[in-house]
Structure formats: C-alpha cells, structure tokens
Amino acid sequence: MAAFVADVHLAKLARLLRLFGFDTLYFTHIDDDELLQISKNEGRWILTKDRALCERGDRCLLIKAKEPKEQLKEVLYTLKLTQCRPFTRCLVDNAQLERVPKEEVLAKIPPKVAQWCEEFERCSRCGRIYWKGSHYERMKRFIDEVCD
Question: pLDDT by residue (tens digit) across 126-143?
Fold first, then answer.
C-alpha cells in the first residue's frame, strides 16, 4: 500500500488520505530537504504543490487541484490506488486505530453516545476515540462518492 508525506500546504489532503487508510505523514513545519530525506528513507511519495521540490525528488506527485476532494481524486487516480482501508488510521496523527471495549472508554465518551453505541476504536498513539455516529455516515458517503 502506498505511503505518503505531504508538504505544509496539503493538510486537508493528508487528513483525507488518512481517512481512506493511507499512511500519510504531515508536519506543520518542514523544509524541502527533510521531505526528500523522509521520502528516500521510507519509500514515501511526496505530495506537493511545489514544482521545484518535485524536480528534486524521485517519488513526487505535483498536486494541481485546488480543492481537497479533487486533490484526493488526483492522488488516487494518478497512482492507480484502488485498495483503500477506510477508518483504520487516526485522522490527527496517522497512527493505527485499535478496537477497544466500551468499558475502557466510558469515561471519555459523551453519555448520550454510551447509551446507543457499542463499538469503539482508539488511536494507538494519541488515545483519540472514534465511533460510528452521524459523522461516520457522512464520511462513508464521501468515501463511496470518491470511489465511484
């Protein structure tokens, strides 16, 4: 499965790629040399809007679209990525999500959610908790729309 490192101008794209299950690093401050080194060391594709950076990297995709949804489609279609694993990564820090029993997260979720939801996942790094609420249905529709 493809892995990425996105430059500082592509935060929303990085988040969307994580939603689709792609290992995507993003830093609010990073210089071009560091991006190139990460790409080389870890075999990641650099995602950037900077033409000069792309000319320096072997695995670099110059993003032309302006809107995040179109940027996502550009990445998926250009690299012919068909194997998505949605809802498997933390949208904030890119770590894998792990299923956790409801009892372990009761103190950290809203009481109304505890009344109806039985399945939870937690980020293995930051501890953020995810569940399939109304936001999940919106994201699922978005994923289905992009994948069509």
Answer: 999 999 998 899 999 999
Q: Which residues pair with 100 in a beta bridge?
A: 120
Q: What is the pLDDT of residues 47-81, one digit of tens each?
A: 999 999 999 989 999 999 999 999 999 999 999 99
Three-state SS letters, 68-84: HHHHHHHHHHHCCCCCC
Q: The dihedral of CA 93, 99, 105, 111: what is its sign?
A: positive
43's torsion region: left (phi>0), alpha (psi -120 to 50) or beta? left
Bridge-based pairing state of the strands 120-123 and 129-130: antiparallel
The rounded distance, in Å, linking the Cα atoms of 75 and 93 is: 20
Q: Are 13 and 75 in contact (CB under 8 A)?
A: yes
Q: In the chain, where are the structural domains located?
A: 3-78, 97-147
